[in-house]
Amino acid sequence: MKADSYFAETWGLTAPHSEVLEALPLLPVGKALDLGCGQGRNSLFLNQHGFDVTAWDQNPQSLARLNEIIAQEGLQGISTELRDLNQTRFNGAYELVLSSVVMMFLQPETIPQLIADMQASTVKYGYNLIIAAMSTDDFPCPVDFPFTFRSGELSNYYRNWHIVKYNEHPGELHKTDAEGNRIRCRFATLLAQKASY
User: Fold this and answer.
1) Which of 2, 15, 52, 193 could form a disulfide with 162 if both were Cys (CB 3.0 to 4.6 A apart)?
2) pTM of the model
């Protein structure tokens, strides 16, 4: 099997998100939905580990790049679709629904329904993994994103799920400031399992 860093090194992508790497041993291999996949760093990693991945993004250039990698590598079990998450309702039956550093680019009114659709599209005992920027009184987000989570807001959506991991730790964006330093803000990170109640 190719190394986990293969696609990043071969195709010049950023590495799979550390939370995706960390969650992998817990996840039942099956169908995954990557919401806002970008150029596919997480989609390719999950596919490499046996997942049948559906990858959505609203950026045609990012999807073109991902489709080029899929074609050149002859990959099976990974499909892409041009989707604007602000305009998308969906359902399905996924073992994993992933949203990695995407929600802050969406309109605030989109978020409740998007999370409801993520939850409804997850099979029993499946997982949702969300990483998204926050803005709190003690750590205001320096980037004027359309949406940022408040403290406790994301975990509250999952109060009826089994929360495997939740934190609100500072982290770095890939975006840099005027001096070339990566911009820091707080992130809500959640891995939750759809439990049986």
Assistant:
1) 193
2) 0.95
